[in-house]
Amino acid sequence: MKAVFSLGATVLLIAASDLHGADYDPLALDPNFHAEVRDLSVHDAARNRDIPARIYLPSKDGSAPLVLFSHGLGGSRAGSEFLGEQWAARGYVAIFVQHPGSDDAVWKDAAPDERMAAMRQAASLENFLLRVQDVPAVLDQLEVWNKSGPLASRMDLTRSECLVIPSAQ
């Protein structure tokens, strides 16, 4: 079965390269495309927690499906900008969530020889649970933002994608 799958995948790759030509680059963006970027914050009143978010919007008007991105330990909403641009260029609203307590503030102001200890401390069960609870708080806010304000009707909340991408920031 694996051999048949591998052969099928190889045939598809060869066919795709023939369709697009040798110069095809699936990661290339239109040089004139620039996602509209908005930095917003979600306040989770139940936990008295502010959750920063960066939103990359596609250029087309109307609603678009979303991708929710959660940074790795020590990252921020500003990291992996290339993914936000790629997804927006392909018609997705990309929401990058920042998790206070396990974000870049953990290590940025620490002395170089103290950074690893700070990262280890931030990789706690408590921070993990806070991160997990950040996601529904952000999703609930997206529903509110989609009803009115600058993001009104920009998100198709019925066609969203859930991606878990390990980050090595």
Strands ordered across the widest β-sheet = 1-2-4-3-5
- Rounded Rg: 19 Å
Helix content: 25-40%
The number of distinct helices, counting runs of at least 4 residues, comes to 5
Question: How much of the polypeptide forms β-strand, as a percent range?
Answer: 15-25%
Give a structural overview:
By secondary structure, the chain is of the alpha/beta class. It has a single domain (about 30-160), classed as Rossmann fold (3-Layer(aba) Sandwich). Helix content is about 35%, strand content about 20%. It has 5 helices and 5 strands; from the N terminus they run αβββαβαααβ. A 5-stranded mixed β-sheet has the order 1-2-4-3-5. The longest helix has 23 residues, at about 125-145.
Task: Summarize the topology.
Blueprint: H1 2-20, E1 36-44, E2 49-57, E3 66-70, H2 81-89, E4 93-97, H3 105-108, H4 115-122, H5 125-147, E5 161-162
Parallel strand pairs: 3-4, 3-5
Antiparallel strand pairs: 1-2, 2-4
Give a short summary of the structure.
This protein has helices at 2-20, 81-89, 105-108, 115-122, 125-147; strands spanning 36-44, 49-57, 66-70, 93-97, 161-162. It has 169 residues and is of the alpha/beta class.
Question: What are the main properties of this structure?
Answer:
five-stranded mixed beta sheet; Rossmann fold; 169 residues; alpha/beta
